[in-house]
Amino acid sequence: MSVMDAVSLIGGVIGAMHVPEKWFPGAVDRCLNSHNIMHVLVVLAVYSMHQVTTLDLAWMARGDCQL
């Protein structure tokens, strides 16, 4: 499992379980609610995918790969 997959899975679980809202009802309505946490984790997953894609493109540009 890649970092991107793990971060996405964690974000999905937090979003589905509504974890902070269950533990602190009414206290995390505006910030640190499960929906906001899920969005932050999605951005981290996309950033991870961007980094790996950049490395792959640099590797392919060097000509080391056999397409």
Automatic annotation (TrEMBL):
Coiled coil: none annotated. InterPro entries: AdipoR/HlyIII-related. It is a multi-pass membrane protein. GO terms for cellular component: membrane. It is found in: Membrane. Zn(2+) binds at residues 35, 39. Pfam families: HlyIII. Transmembrane segments: none annotated. One of its GO terms (molecular function) is signaling receptor activity. Keywords: Membrane, Metal-binding, Transmembrane, Transmembrane helix, Zinc. Belongs to the ADIPOR family. This is (diamondback moth) hypothetical protein. It comes from Plutella xylostella (Diamondback moth).
